[in-house]
């Protein structure tokens, strides 16, 4: 998603729809499998959208949802980097740098930006 300024509203409306669909089916979305229910399917969300949920800079999402989105994003990243794993394991720095460049080139501005201290406007 190139324009991320208004993305939170789009993400929230899509999430609300998923929660409502689960209720309509007589179930509920859960982040704790011991409570029953069903897992949230985030496969339709882009990496940038998952990063926005994970960073949760405006506190629009629950802590559980933020953690869940972060886990989904980390899993996607792990899968993306698997082809470079053998090179990194044997100490091939060229392969490791290729992996970092590949990952970085596919990141949007949201996941790239450092976390800022809101009160003082500086990096944490």
Entry keywords:
124 residues, mainly alpha, two-stranded antiparallel sheet, 55% helix, 3% strand, elongated, disordered N terminus, disordered C terminus
Describe the SSE topology.
Blueprint: H1 7-24, H2 47-55, H3 63-81, H4 85-89, H5 93-105, H6 109-112, E1 116-117, E2 122-123
Antiparallel strand pairs: 1-2
Description:
- The protein is mostly helical and 124 residues long.
- It has six helices and two strands; from the N terminus they run ααααααββ.
- Strands 1-2 form a two-stranded antiparallel ribbon.
- β1 (116-117) and β2 (122-123) form a beta hairpin.
- The longest helix has 19 residues, at 63-81.
- The two termini are 26 Å apart.
Q: Short summary of the structure?
A:
This protein is mainly α. The chain is built from 6 helices and 2 strands, in the order H-H-H-H-H-H-E-E.
- Mean of the pLDDT scores? 78
Give the distance, in angstroms, between the N- and C-terminal Cα atoms.
Answer: 26 Å
* Biggest beta sheet attributes: 2 strands, antiparallel
Q: Could you state the oligomeric state of the chains shown? A: single chain
Helix proportion: 40-55%
SSE pattern: HHHHHHEE
Contiguous helical run count: 6
Strand order of the largest sheet: 1-2
Quantity of strands, as a count: 2
Question: Which structural class should the secondary elements be placed in?
Answer: mainly alpha
**Could you tell me the strand content as a percent range?**
under 5%
Shape: elongated
Q: How big is the Rg?
A: 17 Å
Poorly predicted ranges: 1-5, 114-124
């Amino acid at each position: 998603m190139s324009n991320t300024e208004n993305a939170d509203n789009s993400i929230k409306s899509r999430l609300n729809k998923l929660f409502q669909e689960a209720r309509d089916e007589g179930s509920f979305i859960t982040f704790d499998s011991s409570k029953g229910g069903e897992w949230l399917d985030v496969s339709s969300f882009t990496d940038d959208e998952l990063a926005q949920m994970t960073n949760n800079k405006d506190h629009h999402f629950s802590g559980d949802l933020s953690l869940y989105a972060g886990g989904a994003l980390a899993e996607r990243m792990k899968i993306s980097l698997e082809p470079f794993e053998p090179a990194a394991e044997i100490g091939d720095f060229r392969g490791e740098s290729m992996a970092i460049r590949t990952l970085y080139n596919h990141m949007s501005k949201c996941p790239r930006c450092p976390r800022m201290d809101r009160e003082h406007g500086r990096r944490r």
